[in-house]
Amino acid sequence: MGLQNQSQGGSKVFLSISNGKLVRSFKEKVEGSVSRVNKAGREVHEMFYDSLEGIIKSVDTKDGDYGKFLVVNVESNGVNYQLEMNYSSGYSASFLKTLPNVKLSDRVTITPKLTIEGDKKKSVIFLNQGGGLKWFFTKDNPNGMPDLTKVKIKGKETWDDSDRMEFLENYAKSLFGGSKAQAIEEEAPF
User: What gap in Å lies between CA 51 and CA 86, rounded to an integer?
Assistant: First the structure.
């Protein structure tokens, strides 16, 4: 199935997540795309999707102009999708916490969501394989996942997820036999 409402072909499709939707960017306007000016001042053309269905082939990380990203490669009907999300985000954390419950040889549906409660945004990814999958790593059953640590930055206390995210990243990579040496080299074409 791949992306819902997909109308553009190609051997590698680059995706990101914004406001609870999967986003595919294009260099030029295509039918159905929405245009906007990004933070770098460039005009971009985007299409939005609710979910992606396919087989997860690998999970890795990469450093980019805007920080570190979790990179999930998904294959669907001969098309390779490279889904990138901010490393230290609710999207990445929920994906990684659920991944051990995914049967990696079977298709899975990846659905990002964003809810807004007052002035707080909560981002999450739901994984579905014949029903919604639960988190493997939870507060009540951490399975070795480290707690968040409280740190003080410029006099203000905040929660640091560095140890937790590193643990989840390493666990995910171990599922695919991966390591830091297999860093993603391929970049989005725009």
Answer: 17
Where do the domains of the chain lie? 2-179
Task: Quote the CA–CA distance of 75 and 58 in Å, as a whole number.
Answer: 10
State the SS3 of 10-40: CCEEEEEEECCEEEEEECCCCCCCEEEECCC
Q: DSSP letter string over the chain?
A: -EETT-----SEEEEEEETTEEEEEESS--TT-EEEE-TTS-EEEEEEES-EEEEEEEEEEEEETTEEEEEEEEEETTEEEEEEEESSSHHHHHHHHHGGGS-TTS-EEEEEEEEEETTEEEEEEEEESSSBPPPSS-SSS-TTPPPPEEEEETTEEEEE-HHHHHHHHHHHHHHTT--GGG--------
pLDDT single digits (tens) 78-129: 999 999 999 999 999 999 999 999 999 999 999 999 999 999 999 999 999 9
What sign does the dihedral 80-56-83-168 (CA atoms) show? negative
Instruction: Yes or no: say if 70 and 85 are a contact pair by the CB < 8 Å rule.
Output: yes
pLDDT bracket for residue 64 (50, 70, 90) = confident
